[in-house]
């Protein structure tokens, strides 16, 4: 079906690391050349990293992108039979008068072969929703580009171009449409990409190349693919860095649970790697959230680089400490116990606190301990809150919410249970103690406290959060979907009251269509009463 | 010069508070009607509050906006001689296919008179830079609107419409251009507005109406004005809520220092009022930053609602405590002293810390105390860091950076000195102790520590920050401007290393063109080496 030999280079760029990104590109190009590939397609902005954010305004950064491209063009003289299609940024020759932004650069693709820059294509449709700020950061292009590769005519597009109302502008005049993407993972995204590509291509084969790796809250999950002229998928690469030749019939797939697990591990691993950190610390409460985070941490960076700290208080139960010990032992991470009682008593003598403030105090003393270890030993502190807690503000700011990265902040509590069971299933043994999974959740900040004293049952709470946040619907719609009115209104009210806390929250890996991160932008100060 | 009697209604809406915003609008309309005004112009989205952010995606919120407008139209039957020009949001009848956003609503102006909705205008140029996300949140309009008011022809525009390349589309066919604005204060913004309005109007009188009040990090500073056909300013309203008739020759002005002071007070006052908070707590170190914040706090909410807490450590100097006592006494705020030694000693026995971690510990113990007071007494905690510190990360996360609002986060240290002297000058007495202004800055986290042990002189540091951040220029440009290469590169490196801390920082009032807030969007993970 494919008119040429085609490969995808799923590189993992770091924003602004032009030397490193170029090295990855050259390495993939050399490998492609050695194996006789005609065309290798890289991801969107593979030379710069994506997203650049407002760094796209900086002339030194765009100039570095252009300089790195020039070097790549020179390099390509040594591999004359290979055509490279590479994402980079370049200064725009003119602004778009209808665009009220400060953008100075195009989000572009370069076509390179045999030491020559054969053409450039500038992304036309610039997304401006969710985490995407392309209309803010780039000038749209307005010229189509079709190139000849080994006798085949190939039309070039970049990412959002294929998600708009306008479909394939080339008609049947091309043999293939090649699309460079920086497409972050969200639940079931793979099927949506294929559907968009099929609709867009309108009867022409289409090759979709993606980046692979974590960048702040985003994980680019590879999965480059080819659809034939009928829209049938004939090749799909896996979720891995490297060069992948498109071979008809090879379809690499993962189950949904495995995909989520790998995304969570990749998000943390690449945040550490790209910020040059290699050691972690986290509090182990004996609960499921910190246990799952510990499992993700051990997988991301190796158990020998993870310290788990139990910090029991006068209200901690014996089984909590036992569960904390168990998860550390199961994972093989270092374990420490530091009771907070001496500090707790000291503060009781220094301050008179309300009952709620006394609960918050305990969480903050734990943060002081963990940040002490973090600062002393250069260990990044993980904060272990899940999306249900982050949504309703069920956390202590500067307490359990303290940390540089929040691995499961976009995983609802009911999903935390599911993925935790899956972590044990894939290991073939109990990594996360069953008792952590099965016991009723508790913050243990006062005797006998349970999450469900303050919150709706998690099945109900998560259902409401899905409707109000992830589907951006109204309380009326949540009630119409069958959720009790009092719980819907209470949840909505708690979500709004927690806006200021979330505005100070750690970043964490995005999984859903609407995560609490740069893709959701709402005022802190609001007074809208739903219904 | 003015063909009609014209007034500006500088209302102070709360986002989503349709009942309250409508009440303000009705009240201004009644007053205008009583005094025989022909046309009253309100600010952008005066009915909804601005900016709405992603709340503009919610159909219940847009429906509430339309319902409130319908009520206003009914109300206007009782004041038949007054024309109202009011900003509101409405559902768009169709999307813009070239716009890749999730927007469903227009940012609109309604023309209302005598119980009739005479016309609607939808904002056409949607800004997408700095704090503005209009292209993300709204569908652009494409129809002009000219209305007749008491025999005069008036063309309608909204805010960014007059800042683009396209100028006055009405030519000389109108007697007046009326512009509804949601224009936040930044340094010298008033002159820029007048220049934009003059260039846009191209020989036609123009009336520019602005909102007035704080909304999260923004302060809308009123200052509605009229330019005559030559572009000369013939009227300017002050920085105050209320109805202002445009009377030729009345030009209300403030000095730059007074304007900055009032913006800082307004930003904090409205954040408190709009989030229904009325009490504050802050740490008083004896240094200038916390002293200036205390002065702003006392002015915003009354000294009787402010508690200042000195929390001396074993390293605190006597003069620091004396200066803290003095500022509290001068301002008339409540003062408490809570030495941190008992907690400090307790943690020393619990943990082995590196020297830097030991410094951070002290800052975090103070945050635990302050948040204990905050949680127990329902007092919002202010964090007192200035822009120079925020830029280079010279602060302890979860320590002195803890707080719900950061009054001076966009004020460079050299400006903190200037505004502090001005606070004393305008009071005609020493509110901020001269010794706090004149002593060398110190965090006092180890014996003899001074800021300048770790940082360039503040005059140099602030100059570099202005170039790299506020002017978005490169290190090469900063060096060309005369700053020492080693200090420029060190500052640039510190700025980038602090990105993760800033991402968890409190919001605070924006003053500069590039503040550390929603208007500056850069990745945390980057590896660009300047030069």
Distance between the termini of chain A: 56 Å
* Broad structural category of chain A: alpha/beta
Note the quaternary state here: homodimer
Largest sheet of chain A: 6 strands, mixed
| Major interchain interface with per-chain residue totals | A-B, 98 and 97 residues
Query: Which runs of chain A of at least 5 residues are low in confidence (pLDDT < 50)?
Result: none
General form of chain A: elongated
How much helix, percentage-wise, in residues of chain A? 25-40%
Strand tally of chain A is: 18
- What's the number of helices of chain A? 17
* Beta-strand residue fraction of chain A: 15-25%
Mind sketching the topology for me?
The structure is a homodimer of 531-residue chains.
Chain A: E1 6-10, H1 18-34, E2 39-42, H2 59-75, E3 83-91, E4 105-113, E5 116-122, H3 134-137, E6 146-149, E7 152-158, E8 176-181, H4 189-201, E9 206-210, E10 212-215, E11 218-221, E12 225-227, E13 233-236, E14 242-245, H5 256-274, E15 280-283, H6 288-301, E16 306-310, H7 318-331, E17 334-337, H8 341-350, H9 355-377, E18 380-381, H10 387-392, H11 413-427, H12 434-438, H13 451-454, H14 458-470, H15 475-480, H16 485-497, H17 499-502
Parallel strand pairs in A: 1-2, 2-3, 7-8, 8-9, 15-16, 15-18, 16-17
Antiparallel strand pairs in A: 1-14, 3-4, 4-5, 6-7, 9-12, 10-11, 12-13
